[in-house]
Amino acid sequence: MYVVIFGRAGCPQCARVKEVAERLSKKQQAFEWRYVDIHADGVSRAALEEAAGKPIDTVPQIFVDQKHIGSATEFDKYVRKHFGWFA
Predict the structure, then answer these.
(1) How far is CA 52 from the centre of its chain?
(2) Fewer beta carbons under 10 A from the terminal one: N or C of the chain?
């Protein structure tokens, strides 16, 4: 499983999702992730919306194996469903 988190500096939800991903990567052998700072890496809102296939209003936006799952709330639900715990 490969997770990509799109976020920005100063975003508390982005920081929390990154912490959850780090914990998961230590507990789940097949869990890999990376963080993309949308400002530092020059990712436009339009590009993120195109990748997600819908309008994006907030960060973080999370993709699992190139499939858009949503924001921090959806990631929390995903973690509970697939790993049996809430981080």
Answers:
(1) 12
(2) N
Q: What pLDDT is attached to residue 86?
A: 56
Can you tell me the distance from the alpha carbon of 43 to that of 37, in angstroms, rounded to the nearest whole number?
8
Q: Is the peptide bond before 60 cis (omega within 30 degrees of 0)?
A: yes
Predicted confidence (pLDDT) per residue in 41-82, tens digit: 999 999 999 999 999 999 999 999 999 999 999 999 999 998
Q: Which two tokens stand for residue 4?
A: 């990509």
Tell me the domains of the chain and their CATH numbers. Answer: 2-83 (3.40.30.10)
| Mean pLDDT along residues 14-23 | 96
Backbone angles phi, psi at 71, to 5 degrees: -95, -165
